[in-house]
Every structure is written in C-alpha cells, then in structure tokens.
Write a structure and sequence with these properties.
The protein has about 350 residues and is mainly β. It has one domain: Sandwich (Jelly Rolls). The protein is built from 2 helices and 17 strands. The strands form 2 sheets. Strands 1, 4, 5, 6, 8, 13, 14, 15 and 17 form a 9-stranded antiparallel β-sheet that branches. Strand 14 and strand 15 form a beta hairpin. The longest helix is centred in the C-terminal third of the chain and has 18 residues.
C-alpha cells in the first residue's frame, strides 16, 4: 500500500479556513435585535431570540439556523429583524445568505435605514421577474437574476466617511452607491432584513442564514473576486417559478428595521496517516444583546404609516446570534504536524 508523503499529510491535515466578510481588517460584533411583524394593530415587537412569532398576516421562524420571513395576508406588510446597531460614522458591513421563493414580488429583503433622503440610504428588493431578481434601490440596479430557491450571498459595506455603499453578490462587487452622509442629520443609520412591503402576491417568503455584522475594516480592492454559497440538498417546496406580476418597478419602502441571526456549524476535519485520525471542527457561538428599539417604522408601499417605532416589551433581551458558517476551523496544530512528519521520515530511513 502506498504511503502518503509528509507534504501530502500536511496538506490533508491543515485546518480549512472559512472565508467570511469581504475585505480585510473587519471586526465582527453581535448587536442586539428585535423582530417586527405588522398586524391589525400596527407593528408588533418581539424579542430577537424568538424562534416563532405569528399573527393574522405574517409569520417569523428561526429554526436550524434559517430565519424565515413569511407574509400570507395583505393585513400585514412586514416580517423583519431590526438590527439595533445605530451608527453615525465609521465603516460597517452586513453579511448574510438570502433565499427568495416565488411568487415574492417587490418586497424589501435588506436595508441600510437612514440618510439624507428620508428613510433609506439603500434597499435590496426582490422581484418576481427573470426567475427571481434582486435589485438595488435607489437606481433599480439589477444585482442578480434567476435566484428563486437558491442561496445568494450578500455583503453590504457602508463607509460613512467616504460616503459610499458597496454591494457584493456572491463575493463580487456589483454596485457602488451614494452613502447619503451629506446633510444626513444626527439620527444615524442601522440595518434590517426580512420580507417587507405591500403584499402584491398570494404569499411572499424570504429566508436568511449566516447573518453577521462587522465594523472598522476596509473593502477589497477591485471587484472582490466572487464565491458561491453552499446549496442545500434541495430547494424549498415553494421555489417553483410563478408567473411574473405586472408593474414590478421598485418603489422604496420606508420600513423599520431589525437585528442578527443564528449561524450554522462547521464541517469535520479529515484523517491523518495510518494509525492517526483527524479532529472535528466546531461552529460559531451565539451572540447576545439587549432590546432597544429606535428609528422609524413603515411608510412605504402600503406601510403601517408614520416614522415611530413602538417601544419593545420590558423583557425583550434579544439574542441576535452570529454563527460562523462555511468550512470548519478545527484541525491539527502545527507542532503536531511537524512531529508527524519527523516520525514518518525516520520510519522511511529505518526501512531503507
């Protein structure tokens, strides 16, 4: 039986590193969050660590590392997570993987809330055209098409000082827009994501996973390269293409925001030389947070009206988990690998 060389063992046993945020120097943090569902009596606020919240028109679930935002009656125009990460300066990055199901149309899926032109500096909206399309507004910039039932990695970098917002799809820079820092006032910005906007179809469903938050880093040079998220074994049952609705041009939604999500674990490591084994990798750890609700609520496409967010419940300590998705971080330490290489080398010389 042919034995592996020390170099081959080193390659096999070296720990794999998951590529996360785009750029360099970013510091991950875990802001608090709350869940918003719109209902007959306006915005209903729930703690960020809720695993299931529902009312007559909307449902939110957080199971198996996947957050599902679902609208099923026009009485509700939003199911969203509002990140409580209000900032007035610096560089901030949102990262996550989104999956949109047909017939979702003209719904916001992610937003940089705040700016000098009203309630939003940038929105990413989903449309039921071309197999499912994500567009950036303002500007109606097509980010990606044919998305229904597929996980799409989204990174949004807001640099207040440089006054830009860069949007990356599957790791590649697609859009650079105005950061709206000029004459923006003192309210600041925050992030939110989910499924929100006037319900134009029978149902609307948006899922998010591996959502993370970073600050104080630098965007990559060039277009960032590109990468594709790991697909699920099968698409969601409702990912079948539906007929596009007419009139799908975007119209900005002045909705309120939300906070972090839970992540997924890593993959096991590989084995070593005969007689030795690999070590398994471990995943990320959940984040915790409080529950301070600020900023505005909806006023966009048939929104709940007004720009005031409701005061959250007293015991709304939110946990906006921030797991590290992708490949595992475990493996052999370098000293052990070096020792293994020396032992294999001596055995070879002894047999000559």
């Amino acid at each position: 039986m042919r034995r592996l060389s020390p170099l081959a063992l080193l390659v096999l046993l070296a720990p794999s590193v998951a590529r996360a945020q785009v750029g360099s120097g970013w510091v991950q943090y875990q802001p608090p969050s709350v869940i918003h569902l719109d209902g007959a009596n306006g915005i209903e606020v729930s703690p960020g660590d809720s695993t299931m919240v529902m009312n007559a028109g909307a449902t939110f679930t957080n199971q198996g590392g996947i957050e599902t935002f679902y609208l099923h009656d026009p009485i509700s125009n939003r199911a969203e997570r509002r990140i409580q990460n209000t900032y007035q300066n610096g560089r901030h990055q949102f990262e996550g993987e989104v999956r949109v199901s047909a017939p979702t149309d003209d719904e916001s899926v992610m937003q940089v809330f705040g700016g000098n032109s009203g309630a939003t500096t940038q929105m990413i909206r989903a449309y039921n055209v071309a197999g499912g399309t994500l567009r950036k507004v303002p500007g109606s910039v097509v980010l990606i098409e044919n998305i229904h039932g597929t996980w799409i990695k989204v990174n949004v970098i807001h640099d207040v000082g440089a006054n830009f917002v860069k949007t990356y799809i599957n790791g590649k820079l697609i859009s650079t827009g105005d950061g709206e820092a000029m004459n923006a006032g003192n309210d600041g910005w925050y992030h939110k994501y989910g499924c929100y906007g006037t319900l134009r179809t029978g149902t609307a469903k948006v899922e998010w996973r591996n959502v993370k938050h970073f600050r104080d880093g630098n965007p990559p040079t060039g277009d960032g390269g590109g990468m594709t998220p790991t697909p699920d074994a099968s698409p969601p049952a409702d990912a079948k293409e539906a007929k596009p609705d007419a009139g799908s041009e975007p119209s900005p939604d002045a909705a309120s925001g939300t906070g972090g999500s839970s992540g997924t674990g890593g993959k096991p490591g590989t084995g070593g030389a005969p007689g030795t084994g690999g070590s398994s990798a471990t995943g990320g750890s959940p984040g915790t947070g409080g529950a301070r609700a600020t900023g505005g609520s909806s006023g966009g496409e048939g929104g709940a009206g007004g720009d005031e967010e409701p005061t959250p419940p007293k015991k709304s300590a939110a946990k906006g988990g921030c797991g590290v998705g992708g490949s595992g971080q475990g493996g052999w330490s370098l000293p052990l690998l070096a020792l293994l290489i020396v032992v294999v080398g001596r055995r070879r010389r002894a047999r000559r």
